[in-house]
Structures are given as C-alpha cells and as structure tokens.
Write a structure and sequence with these properties.
Layout: H1 2-15, H2 27-37, H3 42-55, H4 59-64, H5 67-74, H6 81-96, H7 105-109, H8 116-127, H9 136-145, H10 155-168, H11 174-187, H12 206-210, E1 226-233, E2 236-237, E3 242-247, E4 258-259, E5 262-265, H13 268-277, E6 282-284, E7 289-292, E8 296-305, E9 317-320, H14 331-340
Parallel strand pairs: 1-8
Antiparallel strand pairs: 1-5, 2-3, 3-4, 3-9, 6-8, 7-8
Amino acid sequence: MSEIQSVILQWYQENKRDLPWRRTKNPYFIWLSEIILQQTRVAQGMSYYEKFIEKYPKIESLAAASEQDVLTTWQGLGYYSRARNLHATAKFITQEYDGVFPKSYSDILKLKGVGEYTAAAIASFAFDLPHAVVDGNVFRVLSRLFNIESPIDSTEGKKQFALLASEFLDNNQPALFNQAIMEFGALQCVPGSPNCEACPLVLHCEAFKLKTVTQLPIKKGKTKIRNRYFLYFFKFNPQNNTLLLRQKTENDIWKNMYEFPKIEFSSLENLKAFCDQNRTQIQLISPLQKHILSHQHLHAQFISYSSSNLEVFNGSIQIPIVEIDTYPLPRLIDRFLEENLASFLQEP
C-alpha cells in the first residue's frame, strides 16, 4: 500500500487543481466548501463559495443573517435543505461554542447537516486528524484498485470501504492524502471510460487486469423517479409592476422559498383537463417546462388567470418587481422570470 500511496501523492503534486478551500485551514471555510460541494460540481460551487465567504466572512455573520437572505445567496445551487442546515449550524456553533468550530470528529459529526464523510473531511483538512474521507471519487478508486464488487450503497459495502479507506490512509499526512485520492478519482479514475493506459496505478489495478473497470463501483439499485405536475398561476399587475408570490412552508422541496401560487395534479392529463375546463379564463404563457431534480421530475405549466377568486391565491403576497432579487426563488421560477418577465413589464 505504501507504494500506491506514494504514487497517488506524487500524481497529486503534479496534477492538483488550485482550489481556494485547499489554501486554508479555517474550519469554517472548509465546512462551507464541503456543504456547497455536496451534489454540486466544483466549477459551479466555486462562485458560490467565494460569494458566501465575502458576504459572511465569519461564522457569526452567517449566524446573524436571516434565513431568507441565506436562501437567496444559495439560490441556484439546489438541495435547499443544505442551506437551511448551514444556517442552523452556524447559529448553533455561535451560541454553543462561542463561534469556535468544534475540533474533534465526534463533535463535528453531531452538527446538523454533517454526515460521516463531511465530518472526516473537516477533521482531516482543518485539523489534520487521521480520518479517511470516503466520497464517490474514493469509492470509485478503491473499488477498481482492489476489484471490490460489494455495492457501495449497501450497509456491508459502506463498512468494507470505510475500513479499507482507513487502512489505506497515510496517517503521517492524512489531509494531503485525502485530498490526493479524492482528486485522483475526480481527474484520473473518472466514471465511464477512464484513460487507464495513462494511469500511474495501472500495474496495481485489479479491475484493469480483470477488465471490470467500467463495471465498478457497483450500486445495489437506483432510486425510483417520481413525476409531479404543477400548474403555476402567474398573476402580474402591469399598473404597478407587481406579481404574486407564495412562501412554501410545507415539508417539501424548496421549503421556505417563494414561488407562484400553484396547483399540483396527479397526472398531466388532469392538469390539461383543468385548463380545458377553465379555458375562457386561462392564457398559456409558455410551453410545458420539465425541471429535473435528483429523485423527482417536475412538469410545470405557467398560465395567467383572469380571475382572482381561486383558493390557490390564498396566502399570496404582492411583490414589487424591483424587490424580486431579495426573495429566494427555485431555479424553475427564476428561469421562467428570466425568459418571460421583460415581455410583461410596462414601458416607462
């Protein structure tokens, strides 16, 4: 293993990306980067990381912000529960730890929104503690190096990979090695068809010898996709350039964010039937939109509706267009406004 460790570390020194969270030992910044990079590509997460540390340079400033402000800053990243947990944890650390980030793996793991991987990453990168990080990249590298066929999403598989990663960790420089093996998986041992001929570990790779590289890692099964059908009511007042928004308070996607009043239907046929029954009061604004989330496919139709006598408008608030940027909006709503709002605005 020591030879493989040396190869990975040497490769990392020659190929690593210059990322801002690698230039700091500040646990707040490292934690922030890890939360942002969950389900987010590095290229997209970079600008959000820089925006957050500029707007909230200390954990106390993040704690002092309103949830609406935090969600607005997060807007576009998706998985908004991450932002709510981020805010709640900042307040907890400020109140319970006087703003000092906890230093032990066990205390970090207790923080809201922090799982085993994130706790290990913070403990390692910020405090150089010997905790192996096991993300998707590490699963892939280890499964191929040792030709492991245990599903990475099974209880047995997770235990097997966690044990192997701990044994594989360079305890003399855990932060550096964790970064190195993660980067190796991100840039060299990539999903699909990696360039194995150019890999410095090709002679050590069991999957390459057995021609199973493209089959690994193995997952037990895919999560079933749920289709949902939304009819959004776009109520715009051209006299004063205001529109109706409603805050989502229910436990569902986009909690505490704002969207147009809507009705959800069990099928696309039922949505179309409603539109047909009310066609004298409805004007279709755009074609049916499809918005893909990790385990949900949203099918959204945007309409204008001549009457205001529908229960769907209850609880809505009137928002001046000039203030729209202060309200956190799901990307589906934000994109609709980007593409269509100008056509509704009154000329000065």
